[in-house]
Amino acid sequence: MNNPRGFKQRISNISRLWEEQAYDEAFVEVETLLKIWPGNAHLHTLWANLVQLQENPEHDLDEAKQALQYAVELDKGSPAAAIELGHFLNNIEDDPQAAAIVFGEAAAQARQLLVESLMGQATVFQQMEKREEFLRCILEVLHLDRIESASDLIKVEESGPDFTFESPAGQFHTFQLKGPRGEQIRELLDEMSAVSAG
Amino acid sequence: MPQDNDIADDLIPVSLKRSASYHSDYGQKTYKEIKDLAAANPPDQKARQMKKLIEQTERLQKKGKGRRS
């Protein structure tokens, strides 16, 4: 059972029990899997969520919260557990201030993952000479970058020069390309321009 | 999805009834009564907390749907 295929089957079984609202049975399955995969953040999140849904609970809500906090620590790069922790803090503990901080961190992580995915996609589209798809990815990255910059309170002297380019829809957008990501985007745009000109 | 005429106690699992946000004196109110009290000006704090528990339950219940691979 401690192979990826067995794990996938057990997770699928948990989802089926969950769908059937057999939460206590799903919980037993998760506990079994946790004995084999104790460092799996997703399992700790499932465990915490199922504790909340149980009609015959053997664990208290503080334990569910601790499991979510542990899941956040185990998988710091992923926002999934942090989102669950945010909902727990807001809905169960009625602590919107604490929830806002956790949701903010989750949003930053999610944005970072999205940017990395889009940059990867842009690189591939550039290689495939798919200009429109490439520009759509870059445009989305630049918009996300702008959101990130607004929350970072960037100093003026740290900002790069303005950069204007035309989107696939024919609209002109002006952005500041800064930092390593700005360099990477500028490089990709230059390469795409060279390919288009050639 | 909770319906307006559902009773709060039927919507909130036993586990969440142990939360400080659960108020047994609101347990026999309908979901609509709770929503109306939570939306009142000023909002009824107990109703607001009960509404959050109902919404958390619904959210978690939905997590099992369509996740099978």
Task: Describe this structure as you would to a colleague.
The complex is a heterodimer of chains A (198) and B (69). Chain A is mainly α and 198 residues long. Chain A folds into two domains: 4-75, Serine Threonine Protein Phosphatase 5, Tetratricopeptide repeat, CATH 1.25.40; 125-197, no CATH class. Chain A is built from eight helices and two strands, in the order H-H-H-H-H-H-H-E-E-H. Chain A has helices spanning 4-19, 23-36, 41-53, 61-74, 80-92, 96-127, 131-152, 179-197; strands spanning 162-166, 172-176. Chain A has a two-stranded antiparallel ribbon with strand order 1-2. In chain A, helix 4 packs antiparallel against helix 5. Chain A is elongated. Mean pLDDT of chain A is 88; it is low at 153-158. With 69 residues, chain B is mostly helical. Chain B has one domain. Chain B is 43% helix and 0% strand. Chain B is built from three helices and no strands. Chain B has helices spanning 8-11, 31-38, 45-62. In chain B, helix 2 (31-38) packs across helix 3 (45-62). The radius of gyration of chain B is 13 Å and the shape is globular. In chain B, 29% of the residues are buried. The mean pLDDT of chain B is 94.
In short:
With about 200 residues, chain A is mainly alpha-helical.
Distance between the termini of chain B: 24 Å
Largest sheet of chain A: 2 strands, antiparallel
User: Total helix count of chain B?
Assistant: 3
Low-confidence stretches of chain A: 153-158
Percentage of residues in strands of chain A: 5-15%
Number of strand elements of chain A? 2
Which shape of chain B, going by the Cα principal axes? globular
Annotation, overall tally of beta strands of chain B: 0
**Low-confidence residue ranges of chain B:** none
Using only C-alpha atoms, the radius of gyration of chain B works out to: 13 Å
